[in-house]
């Protein structure tokens, strides 16, 4: 090549290099610009409605949406979805930049609780009062869909003023989409709701469909219509707390399953609840790995040999029996303030999760009534849906008599508990500690409802209504004494095979643990049906 040709070639190469370098520099600058914008948007999303509103939330004793997730999930385990999503409403000046908040009032994603996956949504009250928009609903629906797909629980941290009225029917459609997913997920994956602020109007129905609802004293409320509407329509003066506060729903309505003093306590207790639950209906009940300090499965409980009073009309605490039998005396009671004549909750036996149902002689002598029947039925059906064995402690003198119970539907509601036990195909073990009278004996997971193992303590009495049998007798007291000798003991039921054994109370834990091991392989089915028609 000539010198001029070589110079031209080098010049062209130099120009080409400059072009490539400028293009690279431009691309790098663009990437840096995008990264800067992304960092700014993420920072804005972290602040929700801004520092001032966060401070207002803290002054009320409440955590922010993100702080709640930090407490609930294992450290650094939460992966957020759709952080940059915004609402699409243009009416009522909602397209003004000052009315645009990155994330749109809800934080969604997946995390871990004790190393196990969960999907979480946490509503942010600092953004439009946590109100639900179409975009807000889409974010929630996305994690619910994925939770169903992979088989993992959904936890909703609710703190919302309701539908975003600026969006009208679109926000209502969003609620409908969530409701539909709640129903489809029912019995497939556990669904738990924490009410950590207001939850009013149609918004209450999503938590109502979920399996468990936790509330916080003095800061969470649930009602269909608020105090103002109630006063307008019925002339009643009522506060938010009286109408739909945590205590109201824990003691009167039965809507809330547990109440706590603050956000942190509720979130930490929810973490404990999750350790008892399988991830989905495809998984067995959780079983802890054996350890050197584990509560021995063959541990005898001598205190049980003397726990039942000699006089059958003297009450005792069923919780004393439950705590003595379960692993490490730890019992996670559900609905402890509602229908106290029936005790329900989760525990472990030899490391395996079990659901426990027991009559409480300290309250109404342990009689079954409407509230207790509904409380027990819902719990039994949850355990059956999620493969959790059921242990029933029976001390029931019958159904609560009275015109109020009859007129408000004890027949229909009592049948719910019967239906739930009869339908359940999980391992079922029943221990009759004292009374098992009348139809209530049948209802409390009797052998006739396909219970797998039925035990009676020596103090057990399986009998009918004495006063009716000997009506018109000249000596009713003597007739009753004769009846007690004949039937008010465990032998007639044992002779007929209605109880499998009369056991020493101190051996109850050992026997149950042995049975659970054998029954872990249980396979039982029900006739093909679309679904049963439980007497709702």
- Average pLDDT taken over every residue: 90
**Intertermini distance:** 97 Å
Main sheet characteristics: 8 strands, mixed
Helical content class: 40-55%
- Strand fraction equals 15-25%
Number of strands: 17
- The coarse overall form would be elongated
Our count of helices gives 19
Structural class: alpha/beta
Nearest-angstrom radius of gyration? 30 Å
Residue stretches low in confidence (pLDDT < 50, at least 5 long) are none
Characterization of the model:
The chain has helices at 3-47, 51-59, 65-72, 134-150, 169-185, 205-209, 227-234, 240-244, 246-253, 263-274, 318-325, 370-385, 403-407, 410-423, 438-443, 466-469, 476-487, 491-495, 508-519; strands at residues 79-81, 106-113, 116-123, 154-158, 191-195, 198-200, 212-216, 221-223, 258-260, 332-334, 342-349, 352-359, 390-396, 428-437, 453-456, 461-463, 501-502. With 536 residues, the chain is an alpha/beta fold. The strands form three sheets. Strands 10, 11, 12, 13, 14, 15, 16 and 17 form an eight-stranded mixed sheet that branches. A seven-stranded mixed sheet has the order 1-2-3-4-5-7-9, sandwiched between helices. A two-stranded parallel ribbon has the order 6-8. Helix 4 packs parallel to helix 5 (169-185) and helix 12 runs parallel beside helix 14 (410-423). The longest helix is centred in the N-terminal third of the chain and has 45 residues, at 3-47. The N and C termini lie far apart (97 Å).
């Amino acid at each position: 090549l000539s010198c001029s040709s070589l110079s031209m070639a080098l010049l062209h190469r130099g120009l080409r290099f400059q072009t490539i370098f400028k293009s690279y520099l431009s691309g790098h600058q663009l990437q840096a610009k995008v990264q800067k914008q992304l960092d700014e948007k993420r920072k804005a999303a972290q602040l929700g409605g801004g520092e001032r509103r966060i401070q207002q939330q803290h002054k009320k004793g409440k955590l922010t949406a993100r702080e709640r997730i930090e407490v609930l999930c294992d450290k650094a385990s939460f992966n957020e979805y759709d952080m940059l999503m915004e609402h699409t409403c243009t009416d009522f000046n909602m397209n003004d930049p000052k009315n645009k908040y990155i994330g749109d009032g809800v934080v969604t994603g997946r995390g871990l609780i004790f190393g196990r996956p969960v999907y979480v949504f946490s509503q942010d009250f600092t953004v439009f009062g946590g109100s639900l928009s179409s975009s807000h609903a889409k974010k929630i629906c996305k994690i619910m869909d994925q939770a169903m797909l992979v088989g993992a629980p959904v936890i909703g941290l609710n703190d919302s003023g309701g539908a975003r009225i600026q969006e009208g029917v679109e926000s209502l459609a969003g609620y409908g989409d969530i409701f539909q997913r709640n129903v489809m997920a029912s019995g497939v994956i556990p669904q738990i709701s924490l009410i950590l602020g207001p939850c009013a109007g149609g918004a209450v129905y999503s938590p109502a469909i979920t399996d468990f609802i936790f509330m916080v004293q003095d800061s969470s409320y649930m009602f269909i219509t608020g105090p103002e509407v109630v006063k307008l329509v019925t002339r009643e003066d009522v506060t938010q707390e009286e109408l739909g506060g945590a205590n109201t729903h824990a003691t009167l309505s039965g809507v809330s399953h547990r109440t706590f003093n603050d956000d942190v306590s509720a979130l930490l207790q929810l973490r404990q609840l999750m350790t008892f639950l399988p991830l989905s209906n495809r998984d067995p009940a959780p079983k802890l790995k054996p350890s050197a300090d584990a509560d021995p499965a063959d541990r005898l409980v001598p205190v049980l040999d003397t726990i039942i009073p000699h006089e059958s009309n003297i009450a005792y605490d069923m919780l004393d029996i439950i705590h003595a039998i379960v692993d490490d005396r730890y019992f996670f009671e559900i609905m402890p303030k509602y229908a106290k004549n029936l005790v329900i909750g989760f525990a472990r036996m030899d490391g395996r999760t079990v659901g426990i149902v027991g009559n409480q002689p300290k309250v109404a002598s342990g009689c079954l009534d409407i509230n207790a029947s509904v409380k027990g039925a819902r719990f039994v059906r949850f355990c059956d849906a999620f493969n959790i064995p059921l242990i029933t402690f029976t001390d029931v003198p019958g159904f609560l008599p009275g015109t109020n119970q009859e007129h408000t539907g004890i027949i229909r509601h009592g049948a719910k508990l019967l239906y739930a036990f009869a339908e359940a195909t999980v391992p079922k073990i029943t221990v009759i500690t004292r009374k098992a009278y009348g139809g209530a004996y049948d209802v409390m997971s009797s052998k006739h409802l396909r219970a797998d193992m039925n035990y009676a303590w020596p103090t057990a009495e399986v009998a009918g209504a004495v006063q009716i049998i000997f009506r018109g007798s000249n000596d009713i007291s003597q007739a009753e004494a004769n009846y007690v000798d004949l039937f008010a003991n465990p032998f007639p039921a044992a002779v007929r095979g209605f109880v499998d054994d009369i056991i020493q109370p101190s051996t109850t834990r050992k026997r149950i643990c042995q049975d659970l091991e054998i029954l872990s392989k249980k396979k039982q089915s029900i006739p093909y049906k679309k679904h049963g028609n439980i007497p709702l």
